[in-house]
Amino acid sequence: xxxxxxxxxxxxxxxxxxxxxxxxxxxxxxxxxxxxxxxxxxxxxxxxxxxxxxxxxxxxxxxxxxxxxxxxxxxxxxxxxxxxxxxxxxxxxxxxxxxxxxxxxxxxxxxxxxxxxxxxxxxxxxxxxxxxxxxxxxxxxxxxxxxxxxxxxxxxxxxxxxxxxxxxxxxxxxxxxxxxxxxxxxxxxxxxxxxxxxxxx
Length: 201
Description:
Oligomer: single chain
Number of strands: 8
Structural class: alpha/beta
């Protein structure tokens, strides 16, 4: 397995850091919280995992829509830095909001979307249009408590998504059930990665 490669993306005066591991189609991974370490080594044999460092919080009192639009622009620069081919985007926890917003703004750049333990603030705008990109939703329980987005909301906004419930491992399935979690990701990406070429060699 290849060692981690530092990958820096400049957006104006802002520097966005990624740690890139593995080989194969690119999957951009967004952590759910600042300082949270999210790595999925078992999929790095088949996917180039670009682990993006968390951005700072929006300014106090700022319009959430403005903050989300800014983050979508930053993510777009990260995606563009890996070439012209579509990438997979994985959003964990509250980062699922950014992942979904990006997929709506740039569906042509997203090969597939993975929403992992999606946080409660999944869409800032009222009644957003349904997502059209292939989507895998991995959640922790069918009725979902206050820490996770309700399943009925997910089904309304992503009608064709595949929903997988992990009742035992919850929001940290990549640690509690690494083999099963890796299998779910690879099964999903293999089904739709045919036209997606390797971006890093």
